Structure prediction request, 72 residues.
Amino acid sequence: MNNNKYKILDVVALLMNIPEKKLVAGQVGTIVEELNGNVYEVEFCNNKGETIDMAAIDAKNLLLLHYELETA
Prediction:
């Protein structure tokens, strides 16, 4: 059983700025790999689908985005 908060291809929002990668809080990205425990590789793209950057980010700095109604 997988108890991880996120899974591959989940869409997330960044909760912190990462100036060295030109990423800002609120930037939307996609989980592309689970690195270890609560750290995930996230790909951030522009509106054209071009990769802006990728970053290893702790789960505490991510917010899962929902497109469908889900119960809390």
